[in-house]
Amino acid sequence: MSTSxxxxxxxxxxxxMSTSxxxxxxxxxxxxMSTSxxxxxxxxxxxxVSTSxxxxxxxxxxxxMSTSxxxxxxxxxxxxMSTSxxxxxxxxxxxxMSTSxxxxxxxxxxxxMSTSxxxxxxxxxxxxMSTSxxxxxxxxxxxxMSTSxxxxxxxxxxxxMSTSxxxxxxxxxxxxMSTSxxxxxxxxxxxxMSTSxxxxxxxxxxxxMSTSxxxxxxxx
Length: 220
Description:
Layout: E1 10-12, E2 26-28, E3 42-44, E4 58-60, E5 75-76, E6 90-92, E7 106-108, E8 123-124, E9 138-139, E10 154-155, E11 170-171, E12 179-181, E13 187-188, E14 196-198, E15 202-204, E16 218-219
Parallel strand pairs: 1-2, 2-3, 3-4, 4-5, 5-6, 6-7, 7-8, 9-10, 10-11, 13-15, 15-16
Antiparallel strand pairs: 12-14
């Protein structure tokens, strides 16, 4: 659950909840919840919830929740929750929660939660939670939670939670986050406004407005 105050080389596998105050070269794998205050080269794999205050070269893989205040050239892969205030070239892959205030060329892949106020040509792939106010060509693949107010051509694949107010061509495939309340194997096609409470495998095609609260495998 907790590895606070550990010094030296740290290898965390499944279920490490907190690694706050760790010094040296930590390697976090599955389930690390917090790595706040870590200094040096950091490699986070699956499930790291927070990396706030990290300095130096940062490589986040699956599940890193927050990288706020990071300086230099961060490489965020799967699960980074927040990258607010990052400057320079930013490459976000799976699970980045927030990239508000980012400047320069932005490439978001899996799991980007929010890209509000981003300028330029953002490429959002898997897991983008919110892209409100984004302008230009936007490509969202797996896990986009909300794309309200997006303008231009929008392609949403896996995990889009809400696409309210989207303009242009919309394609939703796998991974709508919330269809809370539904049980069984529903097949929703054109015009489904809300599927809240759905559990299990869900296949939503054209026009699903909101799928909030979905658990399990969801295909939009």
